[in-house]
Amino acid sequence: MTEPKYLWYIPNQARPGHRGDEVRADHNSLDTLTEHARAVEANGWEGALLGTGWTRPDTFTVGTALAARTETFQPLIAARPGYWHPANFAAATATLDHLSRGRALINIVSGTDSASAYGDTVIERSERYARTQEFIHLVRRLWTEDAVTYDGRFYTLNDATLGARPFAVGERTQPTLYFGGASAEAERVAAAEADVQLFWGETYAAVAERIARLRALSAEVGRAHAPLEFGLRVTVVVRETSDEAWSVARARVAGMHDENQAKVWRENHRQSVGQDRLVALADEGDVLDDVLYTAPGRLGGQGAGTTWLVGSFAEVAAALDRYRSLGVSHFILSDTPYLTEVERVGQNLLPLLERDGAGATVTEGDRIERVESERVGAGLG
After folding, report:
1. 37-55 burial, b for 16+ CB within 10 Å, e for fewer?
2. In the list 23, 136, 180, 182, which could disulfide-bond 193, CB 3.0-4.6 Å?
3. According to the 3-state scheme, what is the secondary structure of 177-209?
4. pLDDT in tens, 219-245
5. Cβ neighbours of 334 (radius 10 Å)
6. Positive or negative torsion for Cα 323, 329, 334, 340
7. Alpha carbon distance 275, 291 (integer Å)
């Protein structure tokens, strides 16, 4: 089984208070963002996702600055093909990877995003994903070939070469390419070209079904790379006891905006297949698989904040290990306030998770014993 990778999230936002985060005037200063990155390093995480959006500070610039101010921190830099030509992107990422000695991670995003503001004319879904597949294909070739000549539907290159190569160590020869999307078009791109397909917080059954389909698609499209891996991007609300965690989670949901506003928000996001799947989970119940809380999606929760994993440290660790048993090996977790929770989750949840090799190990019996002990103590046994 692939060695699991655990990443956090850093809010490189234009405005403070992202998803209930602490509001401070210097929230996106270099010093504050560095404080986040160093907290990630200090609390057992390998790196953190830096989200992308046209109105946010530029993700690649932020990721490069944080790599320069840290020792082991791996920035997972989200980027849209509409922002970049593949040759420019391949050169920039190879340079960052070379200078940081292999710490760059890349998340390719194809969702719509104020395209007219930056002159992007590729809007229709099938076109966006066709371009994305060509984009990733070219980036891979530029990272690995001496010179690339290509005449495609979206891009043309003539004898393109890079001045710096990605950092190679052992089997690792280039930055890992993460990719999201739940539409049929997105899944075919992932099956053909991505390294890691990211899921949001869906049920075990839904994740298992998507993994099976993506593995079959990989064979169908003639995947030429190492087997596709899978990741989970989700909010976790965890405390010492289940009662405490659920008290916190339900209080937050009670403070979210009203149902009329949420209805408008849900209708505006119907164009995202992945988002639509998450919102629909609330129709199946407020709590699924014991710890998957769907209520935030009814009240305007977005993306990784649409569903939450809620419970004691042992319960959520058991849930994450269940996802891992299905084939998920990359985990991008978060909760707010980010600086408080990166330590709480890192110090209390990560040590309970299954590790391969020399990492900490917790047996299934240990986890079951802890969970049952907590249930009995809370009157739930």
Report:
1. bebbbebbbbbbbbbbbbe
2. 136
3. EEEECCCHHHHHHHHHHCCEEEECCCCHHHHHH
4. 999 999 999 999 999 999 999 999 999
5. 24
6. positive
7. 19
